[in-house]
Input
Amino acid sequence: MKKTIHVTLNGRPTNLEVPAHRLLLDLLRDEIGLTGTKEGCGTGDCGACTVLLDGKPVNSCLIFSGELDGADIVTIEGLKIGPELHPVQKAFIQDGGAQCGYCTPGMLMMAKSLLDENPDPSDEEIRFALSGNLCRCTGYAKIVQAVQDAAAELRAKRAG
Amino acid sequence: MRRPEPLEIFQPTSIREAGALVKEKGPGGRFLAGGTDLVIAVKEKSFSPKYVVDLKRIPGLSGIREEADGGLKIGSLTTLREVEISPIILKRFPFLAQSAAEVGSVQIRNRATIGGNMANATPSADVAPALLALEARARIAGLNGERVVELEQFFRGPGQTVMAPEEILTEIIIPPANPSLVGEYIKFSPREMMDLAYIGVAVAFVFNASQKLCEKVRIALGAVSPTPMRARGAESLLEGQVLTEELAEKAGAEAARECKPISDVRSSADYRRDMVRVNTKRALLNAAAQRPGKWTERRDRRY
Output
């Protein structure tokens, strides 16, 4: 039942031989060793396992490896721009957007995706976009602030 | 969380090949679209399909098309996120876009498909009442050709549809609508996001705003019977009438009488009935008010 799939993982073309039923989350963590992506609920409710699949945020806990041939996957390990942290990462650090940090990789992937689509979101739009990312430390105010600051930074970069 | 048992995943590239696979492999297999219901069922309910047939490699099953006659065709593999943000749907039927946006999270809606959502036949599916109010039809492909059924006839019970095991839902067809059609979907649930509907109400009618006259009234309810249902008694109360708050109240009461809710972990039958009454009235008045602006900016109107 092993299947050979060809994917682009964090920008790098990769050939993998995996059992078709292996979940993308487990493929990343257990077979490839990219443990930045976390498992929270395992049922698509918490968003801790969020990765970008063909540019769109998805729950990696709900996708079979056997579906992935030809896919472009970006995980938290691929968020940096060269040696530099992505502006959303910097903003989360600077604003205290993380408490225990477990939900953070998923939050960051979702935030990056939001800002790609909407460079100047309202607080309401940020909360709507992040509604599938649960933080049980209840630190949402600083998370929203961090996304706003990252948005401002990205806009300034673009303008500059 | 439990992991899936080993299973074979086929990726056919035509509808014929997909149907033939199911015929050949026999019972116990499942079609896979976005996987947001199937994978959860496998993990949560210890359900082990013998094999899975992934439909995503079949070309032509996704996308939203405006027809020359003014109707819309939505491919079954179109994601709920695509429905939510589609400029055509936002312009023509904003309440349909909203009903899609009520499902799960952005991450879920990027995978979940409109066809998978219908084929899974959950009584509380948010998109179903909106589609019933638009009198949508379902195109189904089998080994011996295609057929088109009214979406209302498509559902047979919780998780049950009219489709045979090897049949595939290929397209949702929305018939041409009058330009004066107005509509509204209200999902009633305790949490704003990431929740299933206690009840859902969709209304659509052709509205003469100056005379407040309603015609072709369609009211559809979710999560209050084994399948999404039309509230025909409430519809007929309004047909050809001038919409007043009093009449909307009466229609709400009629819809509450017609529905067949059960009590479960989410809500009691009595509470569901009462919420149908209140929210049917509200949906009718909201639709008639035709407030401008994005629906996300007016969520507060729901409660």
